[in-house]
Amino acid sequence: MFDLEEKEEILKKWVFMIQ
Prior knowledge:
The protein is an all-alpha fold. The protein has one helix and no strands.
């Protein structure tokens, strides 16, 4: 289970990697 904050951090990382 991921924490909301962790999820946001992962999402930001993914967005950064995709861009």
